[in-house]
Amino acid sequence: MKVLYALALAIGSSAFAQTITFKGCYNLFDSSNTFTFTKTGVDSFGKNIYITIPVNGDQDCGGLGVCEFKIQWNNSLSRWEFLADTGNGDFVNPYLIYYNSTGNNVVANPPANNFGTWVENTAVTTGACGGNLSAANSTMTGDVHSSFLATAESLKNAKIQLFPNPVSDFIRISGITKAEVVEIYNISGQLVRKENFKERLNVSDLSSGTFMLRIKDSDGKNYEFKFIKK
């Protein structure tokens, strides 16, 4: 089976949608094609998995073959990935087409094409997709996000306290056990700091604005909440 691949990510988000529609990479795929990803499950890190349906060789790809795609989270590299199957529908050793490690990775669904940076993997595409995703070369709608969000395991059900908030220099964190790592994200969802957990965290070097602080514990649980740097 000959399989070619492309990605299109479109602006927009829906809190209840279970599908993502994609259009783009027109040099590799017929511009009339719109691909639909369906949520097929959730991985062990709480991230949604999306696959084009069907994955049996029936997905037309502009007369060039068939297209079988997946969008999923790569936890070891801390990024979302757009993958193309090699032809068997099992996504074993797939092609990496795009990846996004800056689009607010704390949420369960992938970012839109205007949030963070979806980078074209030119080692595979040889640049045929026209560069990183943008509104000019792609669209993506459905179960994607395009703003600063804090989801996953909410602190409203935890006893963790963060004070003061707003903060000028030091944040104190209490009420959590087994904490290992602290990550701070800016309003665009970009990781600005990652370090070992301490109950007293110096944030004096951060610019003024809203940030998200994420705590990871030794059980693999994540806790996140917003704070304001004065």
Automatic annotation (TrEMBL):
Signal peptide span: 1-17
Keywords assigned: Signal
Domain Secretion system C-terminal sorting: 162-223
Coiled coil: none
Pfam families linked: Por_Secre_tail (PF18962)
InterPro entries membership: Secre_tail
Stored NCBIfam families: Por_Secre_tail (TIGR04183)
Protein name: T9SS type A sorting domain-containing protein
